[in-house]
Write a structure and sequence with these properties.
about 325 residues; D-amino Acid Aminotransferase, Chain A, domain 1; OB fold (Dihydrolipoamide Acetyltransferase, E2P); 7-stranded antiparallel β-sheet; 6-stranded mixed β-sheet; disordered C terminus
Amino acid sequence: MRPMLATPADQVPRGPAWQHEVKWDGMRVLADVSSGALRLTSRTERDVSSAFPELLTPAAGLTDLSDVLLDGEVVSLREGRPSFAALATRFNVGDTAAAAALAVQAPVTLMVFDVLRAAGRSVVSMPLAQRREILDGLMLHGARVQVPPSFADGEDLLRATVDQRLEGIVSKHLGSAYLPGSRSAMWRKIVHRSTGSYVIGGWRPEKDSQRLGALLVGTPSGSRLIFRGRVGSGLAGNAGAALLEQLTRRSQLHSPFLDRLPSADSRDTQWVVPDLVADLSYHGLSEGGRLRQPVWRGIRADLRPVDLVDTNTTDINTTDTDTSQVGADG
């Protein structure tokens, strides 16, 4: 089974028919407890149980449940806030000993926000309000499990998540049935994204085309750049064509990046003189300092690369939405 997904929105729904929750920046999972054993599956129905051994122990508070299926988000908390970079170290760890060591170094918590089966009986056709009562009745208070609260005032919660630099909110209609694998307007999400300015160091064409496919961007370090990632989203149409004209005039033979770029990033790249500053939105940084899900916003004609040195240009834009494939989508 795949989880129900939320529809991106730019306004918080109002009224007593809606409840609002924090959107957690982590890995969406379904937690299936049967005969004292727990199985965790990802959004793509992949078994990820072995990656999170701390959730499989009795102390976590899940394995003593009686035949339930829960929907939630695995997060790695740092000072009370989810750290996707810390969580990413837990992905794709196949070795049992390594997974056990990481469970001590970077333990995770399962944030449970819905129940799909209780005492062996499917409850997906019940309205959310009833499912929430059932979930609260499970009394999930283990060492590694939480049931986060829901809120009546979504706009207040949205402002609070900005102040606390959380990912965003999900608003859910109290009458909504659970629709496995479906994206529904009965669940709506607003995700905060960061914005910042980065220097363009190269570009890559689209496959089998000379149209602009992606930019390689970085932050200044002396006369060179530190690589921060590739940007492809937002470059289609006239914006990409106009930018390509500027980039073509700036062609150079050598890479302006200090880093030795992975071949997946540098293949077919056309290097440019690093004097154009791009404005991007993105969903935080990876453990290695790479931009997550960057989107092109435009050229910053008012800035030069030197203006970015020792300057924090990042802020929060509360109107952009995100369609992350890894984090919670509902």
